[in-house]
From TrEMBL:
Similarity comment: family membership: Belongs to the binding-protein-dependent transport system permease family.
Pfam families with a match to the protein in the record: BPD_transp_1
Lineage, highest ranks first: Bacteria, Bacillati, Bacillota, Bacilli, Bacillales
CDD domains cross-referenced by the UniProt entry: TM_PBP2 (cd06261)
Annotated ABC transmembrane type-1 domain residues: 75-278
Top-rank taxon, per record: Bacteria
Subcellular location: Cell membrane
InterPro entries: BP-dep_ABC_trans_perm (IPR050901), MetI-like (IPR000515), MetI-like_sf (IPR035906)
Protein name, per record: Carbohydrate ABC transporter permease
Segment forming the signal sequence: none
Positions of transmembrane segments: 12-37, 74-101, 113-135, 155-177, 198-223, 260-278
Chief place where the protein resides: membrane
Membrane topology: Multi-pass membrane protein
Length: 293
């Protein structure tokens, strides 16, 4: 009797989970599909039934978004900033995570504590201090060179993106490095490989799954980041999220909704394509470093 009751409870729990997941999926899919449909509608179609299918494929919305609203330039800026951010992040985070996870030295515990403390710092809280610091540096540079350097600079924005992502990245990579057996390092040492050769030739290839996960997570983070881009890029070097806000304001004022939704699609499409391609790896990445060998 108790066994039947337990099975019934488990069945009801699974049913609840499936219903909740289905409702969540619908709540996400419907808005995304609606935006894609709206992006190919003519402006007059928005005054009828909002759920009606498009009369045709009105690609002029995308042309207006790319050309008149400069979304093409913003897309290029986002590609440059995101690529630079990932390169800087990997160059710094990979050696740091390897050393902190595989070696014990004076101050290593303190450094690990600092890295973990960085996980609790929200970028939104430090955006204004970062801006004021760069503004002060810019004022000093202008007195010497007559031109600012630190604001409206894609490399500086990429450097700040990478810096703010370091705690999470080092923590995730360190957790994975700790799961790798020491036998491979000992074998490399016997063969005469130094620390750098061991790291690059042995340990990093073994850590490829976690490195891929780090790249994917941080790509989504950098691509969609808004607060720092809005604060530090006030002129022509805006990224896609900031450019989208300007496009939405302009088109809403002009009561021209098609290009506005086309801009949303331009922002969403790369992340959607990436997520579809690497969905399994992202799911596996949630447990990276969770089990030690």
């Amino acid at each position: 009797m108790e066994k039947k009751k337990g099975m019934r409870t488990e069945t009801l729990f699974k049913l609840f989970i499936y219903v909740a997941l289905f409702a969540l999926a619908i709540s996400i899919i419907i808005p995304v599909v609606w935006v894609f449909m709206a992006s190919i509608k003519e402006n007059k179609e928005f005054y009828g039934n909002p759920w009606s299918l498009p009369d045709g494929f009105y690609f002029q919305n995308f042309i207006e978004a790319f050309v008149e609203a400069n979304m093409g330039d913003y897309l290029l800026n986002s590609v440059i900033v995101t690529t630079l951010s990932l390169l800087i992040l990997l160059v710094v985070a990979l050696p740091a995570a390897y050393v902190l996870s595989r070696f014990k030295f004076m101050g290593s515990g303190l450094l690990n504590s600092f890295v973990k403390a960085g996980l609790f710092i929200n970028v939104s809280y430090i955006a204004v201090p970062i801006f004021l610091m760069l503004l002060g540096w810019d004022s000093g540079i202008k007195e010497l060179l007559g031109e600012g350097l630190f604001l409206n600079n894609r490399f500086i924005l990429a450097l700040i993106y990478a810096s703010t992502a370091l705690p999470f990245t080092i923590f995730l990579l360190s957790s994975y490095f700790e799961t790798l057996p020491a036998d491979f390092e000992e074998a490399a040492s016997i063969d005469g490989a130094g620390y750098f050769r061991t790291m690059f030739s042995v340990m990093l290839p073994m850590a490829a799954p976690s490195i891929i996960i780090v790249i994917l997570f941080n790509f989504l983070l950098f691509w969609n980041e808004y607060i720092l881009a809005l604060t530090l890029m006030p002129a022509e070097n805006k990224t896609l999220p900031v450019g989208l806000l300007n496009l939405m304001a302009a088109e809403r004022a002009a009561v021209n909704y098609g290009p506005m939704y086309a801009g949303m699609v331009i922002v969403m499409l790369p992340t959607l394509i990436l997520y579809i391609i690497v969905q399994k790896r992202l799911t596996q990445g949630m447990t990276v470093g969770g089990v030690k060998g």
